[in-house]
Design goal:
By secondary structure, the protein is of the alpha/beta class. The strands form four sheets. The chain has a seven-stranded mixed β-sheet, sandwiched between helices. It contains twelve helices and 17 strands. The two termini are 33 Å apart. The chain folds into two domains: 130 residues, Aspartate Aminotransferase, domain 1, CATH 3.90.1150.10; 229 residues, Type I PLP-dependent aspartate aminotransferase-like (Major domain) (Aspartate Aminotransferase, domain 2). The structure holds pyridoxal-5'-phosphate (PLP). The site of pyridoxal-5'-phosphate (PLP) has 15 residues, from helix 4.
Length: 398
């Protein structure tokens, strides 16, 4: 038997965290890491945040799970808070981002079905998109590395270059249900859409009765400096998928929709055994308690500006390695210059300098700290990055 007990779909990694303290992780041998990966933009409040921890502990002792066979005062309360603070009129809770995207796709198709236009089942999505790993969500990207060997995939998706409005509009035909798009691509390489692009998609949807579906699984929940990223684009979606930061580390996702867009999602059309259970709702509630405190999103914007400036100042000192900084708020990326490889540089910074980052597409290193970082974490990150840049040797091409 040579297969590992854990299905070997991830590479081996010598960082094996056993404890977390704020913006730091502690490994098996007691070594410390500055965590600017935050569980891939999940640990919005860092590790061991007292309010989140206590809410989960108290709820676990009170009532953990009952299924959706019964009424949910906990779910109603959290859904109402999300509705009160967003474009949405209604929320479906899931356990992950991919499930939130699945619900968003189903809601969009079902809307047109409810209108007597079941032929409008195609969503236009975008190159380099990442929407999750279920069969539906891998069908919604054209990235070969996600799809290869899993065919046949779900039909009903068309792919346009990201941030190219004309190309997206060109793909519209009588079967188009709408667009599915990340306002800021995460996995694809921290690419923020231009305002003209998202506003153009919104306008096309309004004119043609189509739906704008946003995937804010990574860029939502404070990451870019507002509750949701769309707020900074002067538009509102019809449907939105959320996850990652929404539970601060507790597995939770949500599909948000307007009343109109959700009109097909009637009794019996969708469901989940765990979705929205009392324990998950307690975690989601604790996150909102902290995020909706006055000044939280402003703190993210301030720290985002400082981190970005500090990174930009560092670039000229290592201009053979670093190309440029991109992103919004605390969803930042550093584009590397060849022959450096982002995945390789991330491993180097992790193993030799105690700094945790995440690789992304387009040779970008993602910088995704907890949203509660302070100035000292910014300085420490930049110092470790400079050291890592100085000691880094790119892999040889052969
Ligand atoms: C992470 C991510 C997903 C998938 O979320 P999971 O919780 O891993 O299923 C979907 N869309 C985007 C934009 C993501 O970043």
């Amino acid at each position: 038997m040579s297969i590992t007990a854990l299905m070997p779909v991830y590479p081996r990694c010598d960082v094996r965290p056993v404890r977390g303290e704020g913006c730091y992780l502690i490994g098996e041998r007691g070594e410390r890491y500055l965590d600017f990966a935050a569980g891939i933009a999940v640990n919005a409040l860092g590790h061991g945040h007292p309010h989140l921890t206590k809410a989960i502990q108290d709820q676990a002792a009170t009532l953990m799970h009952v299924s959706n066979l019964y009424g949910s005062p906990q779910g109603e309360a959290l859904a109402q808070r999300i509705v009160d603070n967003s474009f949405a009129d209604t929320v479906f809770f899931t356990n992950s981002g991919a499930e939130a995207v699945e619900c968003a796709i189903k809601t969009a198709r079902r809307y047109h079905y409810a209108n007597g236009e079941a032929h409008k089942h195609d969503l236009i999505t975008f190159h380099n998109a990442f929407h999750g790993r279920t069969m539906g969500s891998i069908s919604a990207t054209n990235q070969p590395k996600m799809r290869e060997g899993f065919e046949p995939l779900a039909p009903g998706f068309k792919y346009a270059p990201f941030d190219d409005l004309d190309a997206a509009l060109e793909l519209i035909d009588d079967n188009t249900a709408g667009f599915l798009v990340e306002p800021v691509q995460g996995e694809g390489g921290i690419r923020a859409a231009s305002p003209e692009f998202l506003q153009g998609l919104r306008k096309a949807c309004d004119e043609k009765g189509m739906l704008l579906v946003l995937d804010e699984v990574q860029c939502g929940y404070g990451r870019t400096g507002s509750y949701f990223a769309y707020e900074q684009y002067g538009i509102e979606p019809d449907i939105l998928a959320s996850a990652k930061g929404i539970g601060g580390g507790f597995p939770l996702g949500a599909c948000l929709a307007t009343e109109e867009a959700a009109k097909g999602m009637v009794f019996g059309t969708h469901g989940s055994t765990y979705g929205g259970n009392p324990l998950a709702m307690a975690a989601g509630g604790a996150i909102l308690d902290v995020m909706l405190e006055p000044g939280f999103f402003e703190h993210v914007r301030t720290m985002g500006d400082r981190l970005r400036n500090a990174l930009e100042q560092m670039i000229p000192n290592h201009d053979g390695l670093f190309d440029s900084v991109r992103g919004m708020g605390l969803m930042l990326g550093i584009k590397l210059k060849e022959p450096a490889v982002s995945r390789d540089f991330v491993a180097h910074a992790r193993d030799n300098h105690g700094l945790l980052l995440v690789a992304a597409g387009e040779n970008v290193v993602r910088v995704l700290p907890p949203l509660v970082i302070e100035d000292n974490h910014v300085s420490e990150c930049v110092q470790k990055l400079s050291e890592a840049a100085r000691s880094y040797t790119p892999p040889s091409g052969d």
